[in-house]
Design a protein that fits this description.
Oligomer: single chain
Distance between the termini: 56 Å
Helix content: 10-25%
Radius of gyration: 17 Å
Number of helices: 1
Structural class: alpha+beta
Largest sheet: 2 strands, antiparallel
Strand order of the largest sheet: 1-2
């Protein structure tokens, strides 16, 4: 029973942390309001909870040619 519970806790921890954007080390975190990694969602990766709702912007190629790393706004 203890081994099963321990395995479930480990599975939960791993699944909760996979895919969560982490603030890179080169970004100063003092007074950081939020970190949005442009990874396909508008969730704040800084754990400050400043998530956004995307209503009309679409992911597109950024200035360096990386696909889905920039948002295109339609102006409305």
């Amino acid at each position: 029973m203890k081994k099963t519970l321990f395995s479930l806790l480990i599975l939960f921890f791993v699944s909760a942390t996979i895919g969560v954007a982490q603030v890179p080390g080169y970004v100063p975190t003092t007074d950081l309001e939020g970190w949005w990694s442009f990874d396909g969602n508008t969730n704040d990766g800084s754990s400050n909870g400043n998530n956004f709702t995307n209503y009309s912007a679409t992911l597109t190629t950024d200035r360096f040619g990386n696909s889905n790393k920039s948002y295109d706004f339609n102006g409305t």
